[in-house]
Amino acid sequence: SQKIEQNSEALNIQEGKTATLTCNYTNYSPAYLQWYRQDPGRGPVFLLLIRENEKEKRKERLKVTFDTTLKQSLFHITASQPADSATYLCALRNTGGFKTIFGAGTRLFVKA
Amino acid sequence: DADVTQTPRNRITKTGKRIMLECSQTKGHDRMYWYRQDPGLGLRLIYYSFDVKDINKGEISDGYSVSRQAQAKFSLSLESAIPNQTALYFCATSDFPGPETQYFGPGTRLLVL
């Protein structure tokens, strides 16, 4: 069955460092991979999208890589800030598919 | 104003009761979704609707029903609530065609006693 795995353990880093979150998937050939941010008690908010034919995408302090051979995406936040503390969800969608599937998310804590 | 709104934001109900969660959107999207979120399980799709006349079951539709009253409104009903339906419920919309980025509402926290 289709499966998305994100590290269930929280990631704790110091302010100013780079946070790296991992998303692995199996039994799926996504056309798009998306990253969302979710704060406690709120709905997920879209951050970045990367297509299957793209290796890397950047937006301000965010960078996403996509390796369809390894079936893995890495999400980086450079110069992290306490305000970046949240849960980050990985999501996949294939071409013509009727739904997006989501990972369970990784909780990030950035300490001042 | 928020693009996707949900009411109520919090609800406590008893086993066996029928309840309705409502969702409205001002994004003008045809596609709407209901998800439930449980700790450690991620978002799971309950129902989705591609337009007013097109409603489909998701992966966990048992015990739920939906109604698409208009392009902007999509409601979720629990016909006879049970405790394992205690969860956080999200409504979402998406644009089409394209990668269908999901736009989520603020969520409804439901507790079934």
Explain how this protein is built.
The complex is a heterodimer of chains A (112) and B (113). Chain A is mainly β. In chain A, 0% of the residues lie in helices and 55% in strands. Chain A has strands at 3-6, 11-14, 19-26, 32-38, 45-51, 56-59, 62-67, 72-77, 86-93, 101-102, 106-111. In chain A, strands 2, 4, 5, 9, 10 and 11 form a six-stranded mixed beta sheet that branches. Chain A has a five-stranded antiparallel beta sheet with strand order 1-3-8-7-6, with no helix packed on it. Chain A is globular, with a radius of gyration of 13 Å. The mean pLDDT of chain A is 92. The mean pLDDT of chain B is 93. Chain B has 113 residues and is mainly beta. Chain B has strands at residues 4-7, 10-13, 19-25, 31-38, 42-51, 54-57, 64-70, 73-78, 87-94, 102-104, 108-112. In chain B, strand 4 (31-38) and strand 5 (42-51) form a beta hairpin. Chain A binds chain B through residues 4, 8, 31-32, 34, 36, 41-46, 49, 51, 89, 91, 93, 98-100, 102-105, and chain B through 4, 33, 35, 40-43, 45, 48, 50, 56, 58, 90, 92, 94, 99-107, 109.
- The secondary structure category of chain B is mainly beta
Number of helices of chain B: 0
Strand content of chain B: over 45%
- Which value, in Å, is the CA radius of gyration of chain B? 13 Å
- Mean pLDDT rating of chain B: 93
| Cα distance spanning the termini of chain A | 41 Å
Largest sheet, strands/sense/barrel of chain A: 6 strands, mixed
Tell me the structural class of chain A: mainly beta
Q: The biggest beta sheet of chain B, please?
A: 7 strands, mixed
The Rg value of chain A, from CA coordinates, equals 13 Å
Shape by Cα distribution of chain B: globular
Molecular shape of chain A: globular
Most extensive contact:
A-B, 24 and 25 residues
Q: Helix coverage percent of residues of chain B?
A: under 10%
Order of helices and strands of chain A: EEEEEEEEEEE
Quick check: average pLDDT of chain A?
Answer: 92
Count of extended strands of chain B:
11
